[in-house]
Amino acid sequence: VNWYPWGEEAFSEARKRDVPIFLSSNFSLISLWFGYSTCHWCHVMEVESFEDEGVAKVLNDGFISIKASLLIEKNVQMLIRVIFCCQVYMTYVQALYGGGGWPLSVFLSPDLKPLMGGTYFPPDDKYGRPGFKTVLRKVKEAWKSKRDVLVSSGAFAIEQLSEALSASSMSTKLPEGLPQKALHRGAKQLAESFDLEFGGFGSAPKFPRPVESQLMLYNSKRLVEDGKPSEAKDGLKMVLFTLQCMAKGGIHDHVGGGFHRYSVDECWHVPHFEKMLYDQGQLANVYLDVFSITRDAFYSCVARDILDYLIRDMLGPNGEIFSAEDADSAESEGATRKKEGAFYIWTSKELEDIVGEHATLFEDHYYIKPLGNCDLSTMSDPHNEFKGKNVLIERNSTTAMASKFGMPVENYLEILGSCRRKLFEVRSRRPKPHLDDKVIVSWNGLAVSSFARASKILKSEPVETMFNFPVVGTADELFLDKEGGGYFNTPGEDPSVLLRVKEDHDGAEPSGNSVSVINLVRLASMVAGNRSDRYRQNAEHLLTVFKKRLEDAAIAVPLMCCAADMLSVPSRKQVVLVGHKPSVELEDMLAAAHASYDPNRTVIHIDPTDTEELEFWEQNNPNIALMAKNNFASEKVVALVCQNFTCSSPVADRKSLETLLSRDLLSAV
């Protein structure tokens, strides 16, 4: 295919030849700024269609073909422009066809109006999809015979999308009770889609979507506070069961840690093997949340497992965290063809040779079969791609399996761990999947948050827990709609970007607007006076922009539902720690402050002997500064818990602080 980069050369040639543009992009909507290069179906379409001489001839004769790819576009300014444009066209595809994905395959007029589009097209008609050759023929015919209809419908679609997605609100107040109604409605809708057999919300393919678990946990916490423990118990059980099923399933990498992108079947068994950073950061946080509620080390060990994986395989030389690992890899050194999951799957013979005397135990535990184990669902392997191969999955409880083999659970787990380490050593010698080493700030933020929280929450693990945790421009000036409310996802400086969108959907990655409300609420609780009021006003104005969404489609915005309720809480709890930094005592008290699950809590630590720090608090919250000066003791760390304009008596030991903060969700339900 004669590919052009995105730019005036291609547009001019399309106008000159009077032919439509075909745009192929592997830029991900959820990686707005830098995309990612681990798109499985992008690779498949590249091989099946773009390397086919017949397809290339049709494209070259009748279209101007543009490839929006990081491998082609190196200019940063142009790269950002291309990504914004691709986002617009993906929004168009999602709106018209009810879904989207990558690769993005869209046909444009020479003046860049969309004509029609889709995602992956097989080369010939199959899988219930029109083949790419068929699509090319029909677009070419329509351009000749129905051009006016095509162009006008594309222009109309963009106009409608612009109106729908650039919503604003003249009101700065939410209706009374809407946050609580949206929260409960979202939880109710999720509960109705709960899979009683395998956990999770909805049917296959199953995506982790951690924001759903966050909504259910938050709603359970609020129900307890409202005196409805039985209702809270139901929601909590759904989250616990879902996280257990995911951790035991093949979507979880039992050998190397972390989670794959999604499960193709309903039982979390056979995954699409790609690994994304945004999943790891969010899932680690959810498992940490549940550990802080249950104190069950099962959940803390999964969180550690995720963070171990990031430290070992995804960390850059300067502390940056890379964005993704591909699903495909070569089956052996020197092989030219890559296969999905090749790095992660095993034959029973391979496993027996590696784990030796413990083969029977290991194979029973992980459902290993000589003919392959991808047979738990008709959706697990419909095309027999994994015939004779095994994806590790735990189908029985560890206690039951240890009893079957007549040994204590501790010994049983030690054997499993030893076997997994052997598999890890062998697997590390296989050709590795492609590492996408781009550094995406928003995804790093999700991961860094989980590391920071883990450093405090995991100090509450029982001492006997067995694990191996290695020690190895502003958001407002550019993006805030100061009159209409909410945050755009682009600065709005580039006229070639047809839409300036305010996103609200909490999907694989939480929307920027949902996260912004939570951040604004936190900031408002840390500072005082007009600045605090302004943060809260911006948060409420933002939510009014999405009032209709909260009222009618709460399930689509689970994190925003939580954020709305956080804003409505009359007084957020503040935990103020006063003492020297750094110190062992401060770390101990920080662990206590974060030990229990409470999203409506802000922890502030301040060292009054640090002049610069004290000046910051004197300027931004004089009450905090005064509290610090009045309660400072050089030999210890003092904690105060404040809410509703009242502070507790100061305490100076971990146990007393934990008692002050304890409102145990698990015991309440």
Oligomeric grouping of the chains? single chain
Percent range for helical residues?
A: 40-55%
How large, in whole angstroms, is the Cα Rg? 27 Å
Query: Count the helices. How many?
Result: 26
What topology, given as strand order, has the largest sheet?
1-3-2-4-5
**How many angstroms separate the termini?**
62 Å
Low-confidence stretches: 28-36, 468-472
Largest sheet: 5 strands, mixed
Number of extended strands: 16
Which term fits the overall shape? globular
Give an account of the 3D structure.
The protein is 49% helix and 9% strand. The protein has 26 helices and 16 strands. The strands form five sheets. It has a five-stranded mixed beta sheet with strand order 1-3-2-4-5, sandwiched between helices. It has a four-stranded mixed beta sheet with strand order 14-13-15-16, with helices on both faces. A three-stranded antiparallel beta sheet has the order 8-9-12. Helix 8 (210-225) packs parallel to helix 10. It is globular, with a radius of gyration of 27 Å. The chain starts with a strand and ends with a helix.
